[in-house]
Amino acid sequence: MRILIDTNCWLWMVSEPDRLSKHTRRRILDIENERVLSAVSAWEIAIKYSIGKLQLPEPPAEFVPSRMALIVTTPLAVQLHHALRASRLPFHHRDPFDRLLIAQAQAEKLPILTSDREFKLYDVEIIPA
Predict the structure, then answer these.
(1) Fewer CB within 10 Å, N or C, the chain?
(2) How far is the CA of 38 from the CAs of 23, 41, 58, 74, in angstroms?
(3) Radius of gyration over alpha carbons of the chain, in Å?
(4) From its phi and psi, is residue 128 left (phi > 0), alpha (psi between -120 and 50) or beta?
């Protein structure tokens, strides 16, 4: 199964795995499952790092690819249809990063690992963190 990972859950997975439940850690690290990180998350990490809202041991251009390689994470590009789908979502959630992640999860038919309760308001399969 391919699993899209919300930005903060991916950061927890690579830096603070104990923040995820044991069940979720087992599921996400199961070799039968493919971990997927959206370019949206890389963009969010880069922006938050650049404005001082996120501290990392190295710049995002090094941190993200090295951690993706370490835990074998597949990148997911943002496509035009993802961006356009986000415009059709109801405004349960105002965060543009999360709205695009939800649109990608819907378009690609991927469950999404998240701790964000507002994701449940959308037509998307949730894997709770």
Answers:
(1) N
(2) 23, 5, 20, 8
(3) 14
(4) beta
